[in-house]
Amino acid sequence: MEDRKASFLSVKAEFSEKKANFCEKTRNFERKKTKKRIFAKKRKNLIPEVTVKLKDNFSKREVLSNIAIPFDPLGLIGPVITSAKIFLQRLWLQKLNWNDTVPPNDLNDWLKFLKDLPAVNKLEILRCAIITNPVAIDLHSFCDASDKAYGAVLYLCSKNESGDVQTNILCSKSRVCPIKATTTPRLELSAALLLARLASKVNSIITMHFHNQKLPIVSSCHLLK
Predict the structure, then answer these.
(1) Of 39, 63, 130, 144, which one is least surrounded by beta carbons within 10 A?
(2) Cβ–Cβ < 8 Å for 170, 141
(3) Helices (DSSP H) in 155-223: which residue ranges?
(4) What InterPro entries is this protein classified in (predicted)?
(5) Alpha-carbon gap, residue 152 to 156, rounded angstroms
(6) Is there a contact between 168 and 140 (Cβ–Cβ < 8 Å)?
(7) CA dist list (Å): 224 to 133, 148, 182, 195, 219
(8) Do residues 166 and 131 touch, judged by C-beta distance below 8 A?
């Protein structure tokens, strides 16, 4: 009986040690993983670091994989990612399977996009979105639509006692237009709805008081019946 008890305690101690080692390795992995993300505490620039690998051929699956590379939850490089999504929609219209190779004409456009993509590393959007010691903070917004995509963006405009003004992008959202043709007023209305939802989300998260909130009026929405 004593031997069984000693054996059980030995196994329990070994299991506890392995569990502790596993937890520590997991924490170390998460720390290393987090350092690569744009919200790492020691990094002031919010633009994600982008690296790409070029090759002669790409499948539709690999195109989608490359689109998912930039970690950009705030939509700071939304126009760039939207261009890639529009390209992916072109592949869908050609009814390519996931493992089909991108056609030569489309491949040239995709390779050009990948070559230009690292240029986003030169952008700089600081973590601190407002001026030091602000006396007034306004939330400005904008939305628009085209026949390819529509989007919305929010800006913070802050002013200090000296009258200095600082404006920084806060976040954005974009959508690729549906394949089924629709009118420009309806797309602009979709952009306005996207903006309203984005502004509502920001107001529910950010606790600061905005002196003014300016939402644009989509000019052609009145054409809808």
Answers:
(1) 39
(2) no
(3) 184-205
(4) Retrotrans_Pao
(5) 14
(6) no
(7) 45, 20, 12, 18, 11
(8) yes
Burial of 157 (0-12, 13-18, 19+ CB in 10 A): buried
pLDDT confidence of 9, banded at 50, 70, 90? Answer: low
pTM exceeds 0.85 for this model? no
Question: If 0-12 CB within 10 Å is exposed, 13-18 middle and 19+ buried, where does residue 62 land?
Answer: middle
Contact 210, 135 (CB under 8 A): no
CATH 3.10.20.370, the chain: domain bounds: 134-214
- Is 134-214 in CATH node 2.40.280.10? no
pLDDT number for residue 16 = 55
Collapsed DSSP state (helix, strand, coil) of residue 223: helix
| Residue type at position 9 | L
| Token couple for 118 | 């690292």
